[in-house]
Amino acid sequence: MLRSLTIPSRQNASVFLCCLFGAIFATAGICSAQVAGRVPRVLILYPYDERIPATNIVGESTRVRLLEATAGKIDLFSEFLDLSRFPETPHVDRMARYLAEKYIDRRPDLVIALGKESTSFIVENRNAIAPNAKIVFGGFGSATANELHLPDDVVGALTEFEIRKTAEMAIGLQPNARQLVVIAGSAEFDKAWIDSAQEDLTGLPPNIQTTYLTGLSIDEFVERATALPPDTIIIVLTVLRDRTGRNFVPLNSLERIASAASAPVYGPYSTYLGHGIVGGNAATFESTGAAVASLAIDALAGRAITDVTVPQSYIADARQLQRWRLSEADLPLGTVVSFRERSLWEEYWKEIVAISVFVAAQSLVIVWLVFERRRRTAAELQARRRLLEVIHLNQSATAGALSASIAHELNQPLGAIRINAETAAIMLESKQPDLKLIQQILADIRDDDQRAGDIIDRMRGLLKKRSEVDWQEFDLNDVVRSVIHILHPEALRRNVVVSSVSSTQGLPVRADRVHVQQVILNLATNAMDAMLNASAAERNLVIQTAVTETNEKVEVSISDTGSGIPTDKLSSIFDAFYTTKPAGTGLGLSIARVIIEIYGGKIWADNRPEGGAVFRFVLPLAQYG
Ligand code: ADP
């Protein structure tokens, strides 16, 4: 805050008029000081040194506005008079002589004096430093201006205080308050504040009792503030000096009282904000700077200027409102609320929105992927089921095609059983039956029953239905053997000689045994079909198994001595529905290919040089599967 605290008072009308006339006469001076062809020179005088924030804020606010208004076409000079640390007359005179010398060739057209010390300094030394310059001041009120007896052409932005507005703001926030306590120290300035407040606070609502606390030590002030009931309104004016004669910076004395107070504290200075007050009605240093700058701009432009009052505003500290559970809604309209703790949302809403959008998009993608995956899994499951059904249909068709010869084959053991049983019955009717022979007959019956059972088992195995692939490890040679058994009666019927050349080593593969058996059956029945027109002596079907050169796979080949395959059809025969048979379906080879590929293998066909076709497929050995 400005160290030269302005003495509180209402604006004096006579001073206002004096200044008004003074300003009108002064305009000509400013104009004549301006030299065509150069930018105006403005000297800003700071009363103290450069560490005092209050004057710095006013000066900076003035400077920025001047630069903006003139688009930078202005020569700005700043001088820190340091009159607080060096108030003695010799220093003041030295400073005046120094500035008179310094600006001898660049006399300012306008001097801006901040605070009463700067103002009286330039008024007393204007002839030496800036003889033709207009003077604009800021940072104190009309009472101080009156005391300084300023010349008419010295015009300023007056800071006035209306403590009543601060009190009204407090009453609005604390409608249940019954007591208003006004605190001020023992310095002349403090006392003047109390006088002004007493004048200003008359006529407050009758239910509020106003007490003036003054003439106490700082500790007594703190003690009294601590003991006040919570429905009290406390207004701290200034405590520059306490009863014991101790001097204080008002901000510090306020801080001590406000931090200990048991009721909300208010104050008339914007600098008090953030140091314990809930709020008040005050002129900010920025608005003082703005008012000073606009006077200066008018003066430089040759317009008439008169004293103005710096607009005041209601200010409040959101943290104190929260501390005393006071509602922001009860603040006067247009109150500037500072130190509002922004919610997490207010602070990071952009980041939160961006992250939420990202997370939502990612979630959607994940949901979509999961959904797609499920759909694909379901589709795959359905496709697999369909395939298994098709394979089973193929098995049934093969079983159907072989059923006549298998039934025929079954007849043999059954017939033998019947004959043996009849023979045994006859033998048992004799007086001395040959028990050894009967025993032999019964053994034959048992063997034939076993054969019939095996045939039925194979038939049942051929027709086994799968709802899921039954992965198992088995020896491929065993499957070839069982295929030869199944084909045996049909081969007999067709005069086909079926032989096998099996690898001597075990051929373990991992697959569904029934499926692989079906592949070999398809290839073998096709081979028998292809030999229909061959002479009866040349119908040979050879099923061969061997490990491939790399020792990683097993190869099965089914070769025949049939018609062979047209070269251009060697690959298309595996397409579904390709058939050259009148009652063919064209599905056997395509199903065989699907099965082999499911188990990681490959199938292909060739013609044998000596005539006939050879079908080969490879499957990975179990340890490589
Ligand atoms: P289908 O037996 O119902 O015709 P496949 O898919 O099993 O269906 O066979 C397709 C076609 O491939 C047969 O119609 C036949 O023309 C040809 N084919 C299959 N195996 C042989 C073979 N060993 N020799 C000559 N042609 C064959």
TrEMBL record:
Keyword Transferase among record annotations: yes
Keywords, ordered alphabetically: Kinase, Phosphoprotein, Transferase
Top-level EC class as recorded in UniProt: transferase
Catalysed reactions, semicolon-separated: ATP + protein L-histidine = ADP + protein N-phospho-L-histidine
Molecular function terms, GO-annotated: phosphorelay sensor kinase activity
Chain segments annotated as coiled-coil in the UniProt record: none
Pfam families from the UniProt entry: HATPase_c (PF02518), HisKA (PF00512)
UniProt keyword annotation of Kinase present: yes
EC number from the UniProt entry: 2.7.13.3
Alphabetical list of InterPro entries matching this protein: HATPase_C_sf, HATPase_dom, His_kinase_dom, HisK_dim/P_dom, HisK_dim/P_sf, Sig_transdc_His_kin-like_C
PROSITE patterns found in the cross-reference section: HIS_KIN
SMART domains cross-referenced by the UniProt entry: HATPase_c, HisKA
Superkingdom of origin organism: Bacteria
CDD domains (alphabetical): HisKA
Record-annotated Histidine kinase domain positions: 405-623
Protein name per UniProt: histidine kinase
Gene source species: Rhizobium changzhiense
